[in-house]
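Tip: read the tokens left to right.
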């Protein structure tokens, strides 16, 4: 035991696991390797599968590993079939279908783990491998990041290693060598993959219809606002979009990224309503009445992450609708950028905004009525309060300032954890809790404005953004989600008013994390704000590492995920292939692919024709003995053949018999011995000795 402990302490973890795998019988080690590959396939899916689905898949994998290690029999079909039927029924109850992205992936994950418990023949092994390859491909439904690609490549190497491990007949190479061979197989496929990625004709949209929920589960702003839903986004550190400015970025107080205009209020939830839908359906476009002031014009190149919604982001106020490849975009009458279909992939577009308020436009009677509408029998105290303010402040601008001063001087607080509100949510917020997030302030402000006779509406989007010092790109996160208000003040038209700035002005000038109180763990680890400590130094290092990683991810998005048909055509023009038609381009692509495939397969074919030096020497001995009339029979191995050559009735001289005996012993040690084996190159001195014995046999 002490010797085993000392050996384990001296060996790295990989060598320990490799040694342990080699000590197991071959069928057990190959099966455990396959189980490890299947676990790597399933692990990314555990992030989005239901808890019971993940638990069952993990339990079945562990059950199969236990059966393998203990050498027990696989469970009978009469036990597996009812369990599989129950899990399929559970999937149907969760998703109300067995088709689509989420239900299909969940079903494939369970089928893979159940098939591992029913793997009795060689055919079942290949079914498991093919299921694993297909399930690995579905990972791209949920993530196309660099980490996902690296994980997928590592999983492919392990799957290829498991596949080749079952193919060996005879001595199996060490695990390290099999892994190297699996990585080599994957590397040989990369050149052709790169050529196909760059030159294969790209079309708009997928080659086949995707499931209806293929782009579901995206996080981000929605087309409605209820107290609490933007606060939930504030907890997310996911990236909403990145921005590259041609000039210096605007000040933090001017970084209002407009998205959705909400007009209808039912007492709790704000929605677009008829006004917003009408602006989109009419495709109204805003044209600047005069050339904007160059000092207030901001040129932005925005790379937006997929969010499954139709709106695009831009600083207030966008001047013209941007151009997207294959996706028409409209600039609506209320300054929204709307695509004709949901954004289901990362997109990049250029847009120009004017930081000055939009020129005053006329408001229709229906628009005025919509901007003053309030639900009946809701929030009576807020209506009474607005009426008293109107009596005191007949001017609309003065009334707006009065409400802002009310927020500023009363005991209102800015928090992510406001108390629950009742049916009259605005009344409860204004006169009871007085604690809320940006949507609470924007909603209550617009209700007060409408109750006082001032047209108003809610706007949602993002406010802020931080500059990445590595690539100078501005990153806007889901935690920057924000809501503000717009009021109609003639002759200016629609004017932005942010009531949150009256309560928490630092929220507009700095990041959200510097405004809200720290959590318990933040105080415990970080110490008092502004005081240097070892943890703050570690945070700085983490922040720098994060900035570098996000810059690398941005490059991945720009050059790989955003490789659109337009960018492919630019590459074709650069290569001088833009004048070719589809048939000629197909011939060029086939020729390049043939060269790439040939550069990989030709060295393998040449290496395949090269014989093993041990086999060459042994064949020479067999040829010599055949010329003496003692040819080797097909069924004879080296030991049997050597005994026949050295038998008492053999015509060979005693000196030759001695040389043959020593030759066969050395050949067997080099070809089949544990120290050398057929996959290791024999030492040069021993090969020289073997050739010397061959010469003595002559």
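Filled-in amino acids:
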């Amino acid at each position: 035991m002490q010797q085993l402990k000392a050996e384990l302490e001296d060996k790295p973890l990989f060598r320990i696991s490799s040694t342990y795998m080699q000590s197991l019988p071959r069928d057990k080690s190959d099966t455990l390797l396959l189980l490890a590959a299947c676990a790597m396939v399933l692990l990314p899916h555990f992030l989005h599968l239901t808890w019971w689905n993940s638990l069952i898949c993990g339990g079945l994998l562990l059950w199969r590993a236990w059966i393998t290690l203990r050498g027990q029999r696989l469970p009978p079909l009469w036990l597996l079939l009812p369990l599989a039927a129950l899990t399929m029924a559970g999937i149907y109850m969760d998703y109300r279908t067995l088709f689509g992205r989420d239900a299909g992936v969940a079903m494939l994950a369970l089928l893979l783990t159940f098939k591992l418990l029913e793997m009795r023949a060689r055919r079942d092994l290949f079914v498991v491998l093919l299921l694993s390859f297909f399930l690995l491909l579905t990972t791209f439904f949920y993530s196309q990041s660099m980490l996902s690609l690296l994980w997928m490549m590592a999983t492919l190497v392990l799957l290829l290693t498991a596949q080749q491990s079952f193919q060996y007949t005879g001595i199996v190479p060490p695990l390290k060598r099999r892994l190297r061979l699996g990585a080599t197989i994957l590397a040989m496929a990369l050149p052709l993959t790169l050529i196909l990625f760059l030159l294969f004709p790209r079309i708009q949209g997928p080659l086949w219809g995707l499931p209806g929920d293929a782009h579901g589960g995206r996080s981000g702003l929605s087309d409605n606002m209820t107290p609490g839903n933007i606060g939930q986004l504030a907890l997310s550190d996911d990236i909403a979009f990145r921005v590259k400015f041609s000039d210096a970025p605007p000040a933090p107080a001017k970084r209002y990224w407009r998205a959705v205009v909400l007009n209808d209020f039912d007492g709790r939830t704000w929605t677009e309503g008829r006004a917003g839908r009408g602006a989109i359906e009419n495709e109204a476009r805003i044209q600047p009445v005069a050339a904007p002031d160059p000092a207030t014009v901001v040129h932005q190149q925005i790379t937006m992450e997929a969010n499954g919604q139709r709106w695009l982001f831009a600083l207030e106020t966008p001047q013209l609708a941007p151009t997207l490849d294959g996706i028409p975009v409209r600039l609506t009458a209320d300054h929204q950028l709307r695509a004709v279909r949901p954004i289901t992939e990362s997109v990049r577009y250029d847009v120009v905004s004017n930081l000055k308020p939009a020129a005053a436009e006329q408001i229709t009677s229906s628009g005025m009525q919509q901007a003053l509408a309030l639900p009946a029998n809701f929030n009576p105290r807020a209506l009474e309060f607005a009426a008293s303010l109107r009596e005191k402040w007949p001017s609309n601008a003065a009334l707006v300032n009065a409400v802002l001063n009310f927020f500023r001087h009363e005991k209102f607080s800015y928090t992510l954890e406001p108390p629950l509100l009742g049916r009259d949510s605005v009344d409860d917020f204004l006169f009871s809790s007085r604690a809320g997030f940006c949507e609470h302030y924007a909603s209550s402000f617009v209700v007060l404005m409408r109750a006082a006779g001032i047209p108003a509406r809610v706007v949602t989007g993002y406010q802020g953004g931080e500059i990445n010092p590595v690539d100078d790109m501005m990153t806007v996160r889901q935690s920057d989600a924000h809501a503000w208000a717009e009021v109609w003040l003639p002759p200016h038209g629609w004017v932005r008013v942010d009531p949150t700035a009256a309560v928490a002005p630092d929220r507009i000038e700095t990041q959200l994390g510097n405004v809200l109180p720290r959590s318990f763990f933040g105080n415990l680890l970080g110490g008092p704000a502004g005081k240097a400590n070892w943890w703050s130094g570690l945070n700085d290092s983490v922040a720098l590492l994060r900035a570098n990683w996000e810059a690398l991810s941005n490059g991945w998005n720009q050059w790989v995920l955003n490789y659109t048909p337009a960018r492919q055509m630019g590459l074709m023009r650069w290569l001088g292939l833009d004048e070719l038609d589809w048939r000629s381009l197909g011939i060029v692509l086939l020729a390049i692919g043939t060269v790439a495939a040939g550069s990989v397969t030709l060295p393998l074919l040449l290496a395949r024709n090269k014989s093993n030096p041990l086999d060459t020497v042994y064949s020479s001995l067999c040829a010599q003995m055949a010329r003496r009339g003692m040819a080797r029979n097909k069924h004879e191995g080296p030991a049997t053949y050597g005994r026949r050559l050295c038998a008492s009735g053999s015509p060979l001289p005693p000196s030759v018999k001695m040389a043959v005996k020593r030759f066969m012993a050395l050949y067997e040690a080099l070809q089949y011995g544990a120290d050398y084996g057929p996959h290791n190159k024999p030492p040069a001195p021993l090969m020289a000795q073997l050739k010397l014995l061959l010469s003595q046999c002559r």
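The chain has a mean pLDDT of 80. The first strand starts at residue 224 and ends at 225.
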